[in-house]
């Protein structure tokens, strides 16, 4: 975990800021108001480095503070569920369910799945510390929702401004600038036996020339199991591992303990799986700003966050433990024949009807194995900056950032070899594992352990201002330079003996430096005094960024955009640009990197027969230090219309096109002409030793493989590591409509927004054809959110409909349990929100009450009888906690 001394110093620093705030003398309310107004004039919008303007030609979707409150979100990730373009989060409940990423990095446009993010996540326009073990992308949950002023989503490529990762777009969490007073909020949610709580305490002071605040947030929830949700169900055939287990003699089952022929223990194994883990999260967030002089301002943001996520096998269940296990056991009378059957002689062997001397026993370890899977994240980041006001309205910002994150995961597994030994010794009774003594069978278990630290250091200088005047206005310019250092250290990831854990385990570490320069120009060509009929405004922007990486080299990414206003009520915009995703350090130096020898007959090159069947292959697996950047070309064209004959109605639509090349993927094909570059035929011993150097090697010793008369050399080296193999072509339409009108004494706001994917063609590897995955195997094309809100004085009511469209399956999914399924249904949920600001003096002053009901109709996600990598069984196309009611109170002093 992060060094405890650093944590103490960090917390002390934040408390010092709060003390500093209390010590400052008060200024007049008018002075504070003037300072806030000046700050508003300095706002830089996501997608541009130039103050006071919207990004030229770009589409930006946003949530303000009221929108975030209306979602009932307990985390920043949950707030993103209100944005249809955030495909990973919309109409969906995300949770840590294990694996190597171990973060909740969001995704725009459904791009993935390499260790690096294809959506850039920033806070106040600045990079966040990465998190995870097999991933290097930020987890937005380090930012408490109470500290968010708004969320802006740039749905275009952004590498010309921000650098790596901004292919799908940019998600910018914009935090509060200042806070004066004390604010307490509490939210409690319940759905059946599930409950959650969210508590926040914030305190700050504004003294006119500066301000400081500190905020503490706690959020926690209980676990939800598969048995609590009807839509989570087993789709595979029953294997007989449930309960007391099952003995198979040949193909005939005999349920334990009765051993009656033709019987089998039965259950839904998902009942004991965690649908939504138990989570406890604490965050401290602080800010400090001070005008050092009339022209110099110092600003500091800092946070510390820790999250513990626990997935359980249901502790009240006796049906599962350590997953279903299978063991072939033999009667002692079978002797050496047992080994040929892949079995082990069990001293307590009991024959069943029709017994042939050996049995296949299906069982589980309920009561013996640790049912917890824990995933812990701890992170902090400090972001100071100095702003210098220069002559002629120019500004120079000197920014720095340092952050660390620590990730740990633990899960107890079954060790197959140890299990065999425990059965052979009689310590483990597969007929009744619960009768075994856990200390005697510890060799049957292994621990999956992952841990490691990521570091980020960043220094950036940005100058922006007006260059010269044109007839249409001032030419805006921003130029800058940036230095970034990224590091992974002490990464452990793998299975280790239960008795020893990860003691003396090898670790993986890597780092790199990035040097960058960038510039942006916004040129108003027509507007104001030189406007003509049909061209009220025409503005052109050009931006570009050069990044030089110490590991893979350099890349340059330009972008051009335009905004055209033919008449006052119509805006037409467009842009074209290039973006990239740098190969993640978790891809180039992956902790799962290894090599292995296998018999050559498993994969043959038809044109090169092996010298003998005794030859071996060498397979390279895991990370690849020779990865290149993933590259994208993006463009979009859109329009916004304010209909003059319908006051309050605004319509917008944007067509986008993304061509994403060199996507990192795994080569899963054997020899073809297209995969030939990933084979080295008949390599020398020196070539093999060089290929496997620096990572664990499993198999026959290399020198043995080249011993005459034994190995006859290595047949081929197969590169099954991560490589730049895949390609995606996607286009679609984003749309939005809003209508604001006065109704009686109140106001009505109706909105409709979403995204429609027209085509999504994927080429998964070398020699593969492009496949439109919307057609085969099938994906949702449409995500829509519509809302109606009404405000009257101090009362607000809002209803929100979320829709994810269904789709046809090609090919049809067929299972023994459910037969054929040809279509996945749509998923529709309805949310309600109410807010009432209490009036009065004393205890009621500045108090508000909120009430959310998420999925008020208690809709279930669509059934799916197939299996999806990384997904829970029985459903797809969205998920929900159910009808969740949340009561909240907020009090300001």
Briefly characterize the structure.
The protein has eleven helices and 47 strands.
Q: How would the blueprint of this fold be written?
A:
Layout: H1 4-23, H2 29-41, E1 60-64, H3 65-71, H4 76-79, E2 119-123, E3 126-127, E4 130-131, E5 137-138, E6 148-154, H5 159-162, E7 169-175, E8 181-191, E9 194-206, E10 210-221, E11 224-225, E12 246-249, E13 252-255, E14 260-261, E15 274-276, E16 278-291, E17 296-312, E18 325-330, H6 337-340, E19 344-345, E20 358-363, E21 372-389, E22 395-414, H7 416-425, E23 445-470, E24 473-497, E25 508-526, E26 537-549, E27 553-567, E28 570-581, H8 585-588, E29 594-599, E30 616-621, E31 630-642, E32 649-666, E33 679-681, H9 685-692, E34 697-698, H10 702-705, E35 714-719, E36 722-743, E37 746-763, E38 771-772, H11 774-778, E39 782-792, E40 795-804, E41 807-815, E42 819-824, E43 827-838, E44 847-854, E45 863-864, E46 874-875, E47 884-892
Parallel strand pairs: 2-7, 18-19, 29-34, 30-35
Antiparallel strand pairs: 1-6, 2-3, 4-5, 6-7, 8-9, 8-47, 9-10, 10-16, 11-15, 12-13, 12-20, 13-14, 16-17, 17-21, 18-20, 21-22, 22-23, 23-24, 24-25, 25-26, 26-27, 27-28, 28-31, 29-30, 31-32, 32-36, 33-35, 36-37, 37-38, 37-39, 39-40, 40-43, 41-42, 43-44, 44-47, 45-46
What is the number of strand segments?
Answer: 47
Helix content: under 10%
- Report the mean per-residue pLDDT as an integer: 89
Q: Which structural class best describes the helix and strand composition?
A: mainly beta
Determine the strand fraction and express it as a percent band: over 45%
Whole-number radius of gyration? 30 Å
Shape: globular
Oligomer: single chain
Largest sheet: 22 strands, antiparallel, barrel
Distance separating the two termini: 37 Å
Low-confidence stretches: 4-41
Alpha plus pi helix count: 11
